[in-house]
Amino acid sequence: MRSLSKETIITPSVQSKLNLRELWLFRELFYFFAWRDIKVRYKQTALGAGWAILQPLLAAIIFTVFFNRVAKINSGAANIPYPIFAYLGLMYWNAFSTAVNTISNSLLSNSGVLTKIYFPRLIPPLAATALSVVDFFFAAIVFFVIMLGYRVIPGVEGLALVIPSLLLLMVAALGIGLFFAALNVKYRDVRSALPFIIQIGFFVTPVIYPISYIPERFQPYAYLNPAAGAITSVKEGLFHQPVNWQGLLTSWIVAIFMLIVGLWYFKRTEKNFADII
Amino acid sequence: MKASYGTLKDDITNILKKPFDRHRQENHETFWALKDVTFDVNPGEIFGVVGKNGSGKSTLLKILSRIVDPTAGTVKMNGRVASLLEVGTGFHPELTGRENIFFNGSMIGMSRQEIRKRFKEIVEFSEVEKFLDTPVKFYSSGMYVRLAFSVAAHLEPEILLLDEVLAVGDAAFQKKSLNKIVSTMESGCTVLMVSHGAENLLKLCKSGILLSNGKVKSMGPIDKVLLDYTGMRPLQLDPHSTKLQEVEIHYSHVKKSDRLTTNSAFEAEVEFSLKEPLPNCLINFFAEDSAGRFALHNRQDFKQFGKKGRYKIVMKLPRLSLRPGGYSTWFRFVAKKKYGEYALDSDRVVIQVDGKQELQSIVDIPAEWHSEALAKPEPHAKR
Predict the structure, then answer these.
(1) Which of B64, B95, B110 sits opposite A40 (nearest CB)?
(2) Which residues have C-beta within 8 Å of that of residue B100, sequence separation ≥ 6?
(3) For chain A: N or C, fewer Cβ within 10 A?
(4) ipTM greater than 0.90, yes or no?
(5) Last residue of a domain, which of B210, B235, B260?
(6) For chain B, what is the total number of helices (H) and then of strands (E)?
(7) At what angle do helices B112-126 and B97-108 cross, to 10 degrees?
(8) What is the pTM of this model?
(9) Closest CA to B339 of B203, B235, B260
(10) For residues A172 and A262, what is the distance between their CA atoms, to the nearest angstrom?
């Protein structure tokens, strides 16, 4: 059932090919990995789904108090209540940072099975995105409830962009995550650098502030950060501002490029995972 | 094959220290876990792999399981491959037994459909029905291992790779596991097994390979390989393991007199046929008491069975000498061959020795007693 053909031939090779057919054959395992991660997370934490909601919510409250009231950061041209603005950004950013973290750890945390059973090495990282998506889903429901509560009507373009922006973030997260997952296997000290990099990313990306805060001449460059494009486009769309399609396109191109690089590096080092882990 | 991880800091520091060092790569030690290992296994064969720890057995299985890649060489396998390098791989402590069956089953190669189909059997075999919906972290180690093995045992591959997985669980479960593996093998599956247990290998394998420091030291019939491995003939802890094929015992029989007592004459006979000549045969007669102790052991060399055919052996004791009680008796045929001892036991015949229990010992051997009076002791000298 699992072997590609009746005959299996194993030869040494420098780099494994991106075997999509094999991934399709193992699709059930992908489902089980995602299912296991989600089940375990929701069993282990007392809050379960609550955690996915509380994180952006609490962060939004804290940011509202300190950044909005004290530092006077607001939603800029969008002109909507800051808590909603911040929550939206945080909801997406959480999905992104959780994804990057879990993807980059997916190989090490599954080291036990990687050294004992054969399956395409791409499965744990790919399945790691599932948890972030599920978390996002719960956080998004709460978001729409809050929006209604504040009587803010969402723009149609924004609604259309909700899922594509998540997809954009996941593509970028995969690119970064795959790269670091592979790097992590060989170099253990890299692991501690990643949270730091993500932290910097948080402040550099217009998550809790509008992109207008970045000096105009630098704004196009901001879109080189896929998260900037994803979050900003949803904000613009939902809050009745013109969407910067060009910026969004830039972000997509960068994200796809990241994915290709991450995938390439992952495949290149894949052969040695079981040896080194 | 390199096997190490390092830190990025170290690697960068090394590059900075010696940017033009062409030999930097070669400073890593090259260690060949396997070298020039070549062998063929035919369909339906059960093939054993032995060797000391570190000889490359696990690496060989890992290559065949596609977990690591060979540095050089080719492997060709025909058929669905399933490999059991460890029992319970992928079991997660937070998931219940039921959930783990699905996850683990999927990982080792079963589709969801197959798992559902065999779910009942898997649960029955593992004997953990009552705790199926409890998280596995609450299982005893025995339950854990039984469930894990049970999932793996219900795979139905064409090629099965086993790495020392038969040593799990208590004795009763090990026996059950062994039987399950045997029935899998009987369905025509090709098996490659690594084991330290010589008895298991003898019981199951026909041929094998001995690895030493990554190289093939010996290859061929399993008893030859085991002889080369252990340097001695396979131990006869359980004579059933090397069955004497040439003999077929029809019945063993004790001459029934009215009453067997300690002083009775005793006669036992065994009737058997030889499929092949057996010129060198040691026939033993055993009697075991109710506590499992050997009470009698008599034996005799027979060199006259040079022809096929039916024979009868009679063993007579002029005086039984056993104290009253129940005893289990049987004959054992033993033949010494080139690579070891082979044996076959007859069925047991239970005898009852009547009388009153008077002695402490199992055997009652008549002795001669004799007394005499010695000279009177000297009186003390008066002070």
Answers:
(1) B95
(2) B90, B91, B92, B136, B147, B151
(3) N
(4) no
(5) B235
(6) 8, 15
(7) 120
(8) 0.69
(9) B235
(10) 9
